[in-house]
Write a structure and sequence with these properties.
120 residues, 4-stranded antiparallel β-sheet, 7-stranded mixed β-sheet, elongated, single chain, mainly beta
Amino acid sequence: QVQLVESGGGLVRPGGSLRLSCVASGKIGGLYAMGWYRQVVGRQREFIATSTNRDTTDYADSVKGRFTISGDFVNKTVYLQLNSLKLEDTAVYYCSAEGLGPNGGHRQYWGQGTQVAVSS
């Protein structure tokens, strides 16, 4: 079974930093991207950043210049460095892995989420 496990969340002061890690295990056919999303209760899950096996990255405007994603597709691991944290960064951060299902269709797997709380 595919499993994604995030770690590194916690409480941090505004302007502080945090580093999130996500390790995927199990068979992910055609793994081509790993990324991070975040969600606040009552709000839609929000795209944060992705890293692909083509060495491309993409960031949401809200975190561009502050967050850095890095992927290790050999080890099915992705990291998110969060710098210059703001109060509005507070959310549950979810790791995702994207690959291909048995029928060749797109398939996205999710971690359980890790809480990031930015508080003064």
